[in-house]
C-alpha cells in the first residue's frame, strides 16, 4: 500500500475541507491510501484535533506528501512552519529525497496571497529534496475557475468557510490523483535508497 500523508493546518475548516478533497483523489488511485494529519496550534489549543498530529516517523515513512495551510499574511501558518523547523533529523538523513509532494491553501479574499503561500510551503520541501507536483493546464477546470485553483497547487476562496466550489473540488481531487500516481511510480526507487 502506498501511503501518502495529507498534512494541513486549518483554523476555520476551509483548508481542512480542501485536504479532504485531496485525500479523496489519493484514495481513488488503486493501491494508495491517504493519511490525514494536522499539527498542534500555537499556543496549544484545549480542543482535540479533528485528525491526528503528524509524527516525524510518519513523515519519514510516507511515499508522498500533500501539505496545506491557510494564507497568513501571504505565508504559511506558524504552526505548520514550526513543525517543519523540527524536521532537521530527516533533512540530515535525506529521508524525504525524491518523494513527490504538493501544496494547497485557502484565503478569505481572491488576491489574499494564495500563490505566495503556496510557494512559501514549497521551500522546505525543496530543501528536503522532494519533487514538487503542481496542477498542469491540461486540467480544464484550471482554465475556467472563478475562485480557487492555480498551477502551483490547489486553492480555495473561502467566502463561506469549508464550502468549496465545483472547480475547487475537481482541482483538489485531480491534484491528489496526480500525487498518488507519481508516488506509485516513484516508490520502488525511493524505497531502495531512503528506507
From TrEMBL:
Record keyword Transmembrane helix present: no
Which InterPro entries does the record match to this protein? Flavodoxin/NO_synth, Flavodoxin_CS, Flavoprotein-like_sf, Flavoprotein_WrbA-like, FMN_Rdtase-like_dom
The record's Gene3D superfamilies line, in alphabetical order, gives: 3.40.50.360
PROSITE patterns per the UniProt record, alphabetical: FLAVODOXIN (PS00201), FLAVODOXIN_LIKE (PS50902)
The EC number(s) this enzyme carries: 1.6.5.2
Transmembrane parts of this sequence: none
Keyword flag Glycosyltransferase: no
Q: Which Pfam families match?
A: FMN_red
What is any one of the record's Gene Ontology cellular component terms? membrane
Domain of life per record: Bacteria
Which residue ranges does the record assign to the Flavodoxin-like domain?
A: 4-180
**UniProt keyword list:** Flavoprotein, FMN, Oxidoreductase
Q: Please give the cofactor(s) recorded in the UniProt entry for this protein.
A: FMN
A GO molecular function annotation here is: electron transfer activity
Q: Which family does it belong to?
A: Belongs to the WrbA family.
Which protein is depicted? NAD(P)H dehydrogenase (Quinone)
Q: Which organism is it from?
A: Vibrio ruber (strain DSM 16370 / JCM 11486 / BCRC 17186 / CECT 7878 / LMG 23124 / VR1)
